[in-house]
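Renewal narrative, Specific Aim 1. Our central claim is that a sequence can be written position by position from structural information alone. The example that follows is taken directly from our test logs and has not been curated for this report. It begins with the structure tokens describing the chain, in the order in which they were read.
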């Protein structure tokens, strides 16, 4: 049960705060056991430019809230985000193909670890699943008849899990 409150700051601005639990609503044995955890919000931006080339061959993906993007499919530590840059060469097809399919390939491993906490075992499981996912991406790219044999891509990705 939440209550609505207002907080005054030094500059005399009023900031509404919603869903502040009342002390009587907290199920706590002692104040020392109450730990409020700050979960940072991740925000990003992007820019792409063809430069001196005639055509753009590169692609990118940026997902600032991976948990929300994947929905109930997977449980990740918060915050979670995924970013990728796909540097195409020999045409745009390979970079576009990988961008379109990368999430499904990387996170389709049934052994992909799910947890709200990050530890060594979790990180080893993530690394193993990502290696398998990139191998699947490479095989899928080779099998796609719509992608020219002269087209390729280099991928740089970042997976942010937890603080």
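The sequence written for that structure reads:
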């Amino acid at each position: 049960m939440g209550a609505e409150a207002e907080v005054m700051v030094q500059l005399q601005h009023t900031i509404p705060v919603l869903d502040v639990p009342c002390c009587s609503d907290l199920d706590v044995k002692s104040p020392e056991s109450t730990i409020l955890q700050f979960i940072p919000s991740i925000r990003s931006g992007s820019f792409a430019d063809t430069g001196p080339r005639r055509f753009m061959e590169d692609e990118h993906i940026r997902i600032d809230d991976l948990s929300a993007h994947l929905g109930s499919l997977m449980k990740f530590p918060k915050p979670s985000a995924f970013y990728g840059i796909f540097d195409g060469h020999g045409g745009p097809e390979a970079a576009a193909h990988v961008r379109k399919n990368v999430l499904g390939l990387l996170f389709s491993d049934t052994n992909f670890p799910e947890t709200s906490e990050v530890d060594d075992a979790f990180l080893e499981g993530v690394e193993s699943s990502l290696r398998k996912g990139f191998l699947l991406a490479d095989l899928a790219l080779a099998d796609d008849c719509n992608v020219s044999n002269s087209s390729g891509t280099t991928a740089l990705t970042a997976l942010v899990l937890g603080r």
